[in-house]
Design a protein that fits this description.
This protein is an alpha/beta fold and 260 residues long. It contains 10 helices and 9 strands. The chain has a domain at 10-162 and 201-220: Spore Coat Polysaccharide Biosynthesis Protein SpsA, Chain A, CATH 3.90.550. It has helices spanning 10-18, 36-46, 64-77, 93-106, 127-142, 145-155, 177-186, 206-213, 218-224, 238-252, and strands spanning 24-30, 52-58, 82-86, 112-117, 160-164, 169-171, 195-197, 202-205, 256-259. Helix 1 (10-18) packs parallel to helix 6 (145-155), helix 4 runs antiparallel to helix 9 (218-224) and helix 5 crosses helix 6. The two termini are 28 Å apart.
């Protein structure tokens, strides 16, 4: 049985009473290994819901000793966690596609996916801006038990397909229109515009990902993504187009992206 702390708050009590016990897949791209303590706290908060955890580490980032220590620490803390070392390709999108490819191959089934990554955004606005943006994205959806539970309750609504930080939900993107149009054609998405979470951290229903991502070869799609970190943010990129694509999947499914 999931471990729920004594002294249950109202959202947790509502979740227990609803009987909604979602199967959760947590996918974390830990490119910046120094942020592990922060993300460890988020995963610890999620632990009572017994998620399946996939953590990706970027090849060549961190010393061999540091990376080996981190892998051991993750395994000791989350014994069933899947740890994958991946190329620095497609920012956080590339590692996510690799994880979903593994999940589909394994035949696992889930209700919800929580997507997180160590977003520093050094080339967007500097260290402080990146820290603020990262926390503004994560805290509303996974900052503490109460916020997680509220998101799980919202996800139980049939019309809700995705949940993200309200502050970073936006719509429209001319810069990545060509790549986005290409992906929409491949996935047979017919909507012309949709809201998305700028920063790509959210809860999303697994069935939506399964429906659309099964229409493409995930590893071929991964191979098309650019290597390295994109520093010229004025240029179109497939990774940024895919970031927006999640919102298009939701809209094409007739579901809502809800801000919290």
């Amino acid at each position: 049985m999931p471990r729920i702390a004594i002294g249950i708050r109202k959202p947790q009590r509502q979740l227990l009473m609803s009987g909604h016990r979602p199967r959760i897949l947590a996918v974390v791209h830990l490119h910046d290994q120094d942020l592990w303590p922060e993300f460890r706290d988020y995963l610890d908060t999620l632990e009572p819901y017994e998620p399946t955890i996939f953590i990706t580490l970027t090849e060549g980032v961190g010393s061999i000793g540091q990376t080996d220590w981190l892998k051991r620490h993750i395994q000791q803390r989350y014994g069933q966690a899947h740890i994958l070392t991946v190329q620095n390709r497609g920012s956080d999108i590339g590692p996510f596609l690799i994880c979903m490819n593994h999940v589909f191959d394994r035949g696992d089934r889930f209700d919800l996916v929580l997507k997180l990554h160590t977003k520093k955004s050094l080339f967007t606005g500097g260290i402080e801006f990146g820290r603020r943006w990262r926390r503004e994205l994560i805290v509303p959806i996974a900052g503490n038990m109460c916020q997680i539970t509220e998101c799980l309750l919202k996800s139980a609504e049939h019309s809700v397909g995705m949940i993200g930080a309200r502050r970073w939900i936006t719509i429209g993107d001319r810069q990545n229109r060509d790549h986005l149009g290409d992906y929409c054609r491949r996935l047979a998405i017919r909507v012309n515009e949709a809201a998305f979470v700028g920063g790509t951290m959210f809860w999303i229903k697994y069935e939506v990902l399964e429906r659309y991502l099964s229409r493409i070869d995930l590893m071929d799609t991964w191979a098309e993504l650019a290597q390295g970190y994109q520093t010229d943010l004025t240029r179109s990129s497939r990774a940024h187009a895919f970031e927006r694509l999640f919102g298009y999947m939701i809209a094409d499914s007739g579901l809502r992206l809800v801000g919290v």
